[in-house]
Amino acid sequence: MGMEQIPHNFLTTRLEDLVKWARRNSVWPATFGLACCAMEMMAAGAAHYDLARYGMEVFRASPRQADLMVVAGRLSQKMAPVLRQVYDQMVEPKWVISMGVCASTGGMFNNYALVQGVDQIVPVDVYVPGCPPGPETLMHGILTLHEQIRTGDLLARRGAGRGVGIQVEQRDGTPVAVPARSA
Ligand code: SF4
Prior knowledge:
Layout: H1 10-24, H2 37-45, E1 68-72, H3 80-89, E2 95-99, H4 101-105, E3 126-128, H5 135-151, H6 153-157, E4 166-167
Parallel strand pairs: 1-2, 2-3, 3-4
């Protein structure tokens, strides 16, 4: 039985808050880089930007241990079924960030070989702009996702089989402001 089916009272509300808090603080990305954007994703995980401080330092080698897919780079038609299979193997609830203009729209590669937007293959929750987006912009997207998970807005706003599709602005060159985080 999911928590949605339990009648609401004070205790279940607190329990729900606890579940959202735990989800927000333990988002684990799948190891999945497609092209040049993946370099910036790796930089975000390295010591200087230190994704570990958000509870998500471990890029999981198995999709069954991951709940975040960062589509980092252009997606070829041949790779699309593989991407979908990795997504299908991830645990629920799961989230998708489309990183970079190629992943979101095909970018400069307007041709038959590349998918013109990964939202044709998987539901996208956050679009991160840039070519490539730097670690600051990617982290801005990740923190936006975290906040949506904490409030529960992300799941509430999703339609069947569709992501929320939040578009964040570019933040490269500006320090990543660490938002005040509830305990
Ligand atoms: S958006 Fe730019 S950096 Fe990212 S995959 Fe496309 S060409 Fe490469």
